[in-house]
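Human:
Take a look at this sequence-structure pair and walk me through the tokens.
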Amino acid sequence: MTFKCDLEYKGDIYYRMRRFKGVPFIVILALLTVLLLVTFVEGVFTEKTYVKETNKDLPLSQSVKSDATSNLESSNDNLLNDERQKEKYHHISIYYLDDFKELMPITKETLDWAMVKNKQVFGNVETEPVQLVMFENKDNLSKFTALDDVSGFYSDFWKLIAIHYTNKDWILERRETPLYFFQKAILHEYTHYIFRRKIEDSDIRVSDYPVWFQEGVAEYIGNDGTEVYYSEFQLVPFAQLFSGEQWSKGRQKDGSGVYKQSYFAIKYLTDTYDEIIIKDIIRKTEQNGDFETGFTEATGITLHDLENNFLNSYK
């Protein structure tokens, strides 16, 4: 690259005008400014999306970087590097280390289960490619997701499911408890993926659905075929479990069990109205543009009624 510099005399003032291959320098500067502005806006969008999905702040500098590296198949991503195997199963690309290979049959079996159960609950939903990354090291999962103390994670922004597993040998032996937690994590996170596909063509955003409803449905499918015994917990009003921020605060309240609460609420609804009630609530929400109105039209009860009814049914 060569710069051509012209020095022009005008009175007692010298003006240095730079040109790059015949293009005025000020034009190049303007183009660079626009490019930086676009990158900044994309970074802000990435940050807002990340916070909405994970309820965790993401520094803007990292947001901008994430925008440039969001394709997790990139060679720049050292967590999905050449050490990981990649296997395609239906619309799912599964990434795993060699030590995980023996678990692939159970993984595929569980994914088939997740697909069948989600179809029963949501009906036919058009899928698109999604990545499934398996982690035996929980610290690596935390680094990957920027979240602490999680066994699973779904990002619709990256179209990615991440799962942490332990006790591989016990899972292979199909011991009840380790197998349950392994399969539940896959069922739960895959349900989040399908839920997003279910609503993506409507005018209703995912943030218009309360987190307790999303997590309750994911827990309901995650516990498919399992008898979950009721245990006492401190009720958090559903109105205080709508946003991601409220959900995080609810989890921290002494004696609360927001995942259990949401599960038993959805279980009460499906026991009372059958599983079709989940689709009905979504359909009525789309028609009315409001979850609470849609919920009442679909069920005939209010959210306050639900709080009283589902608790009484388990006492």
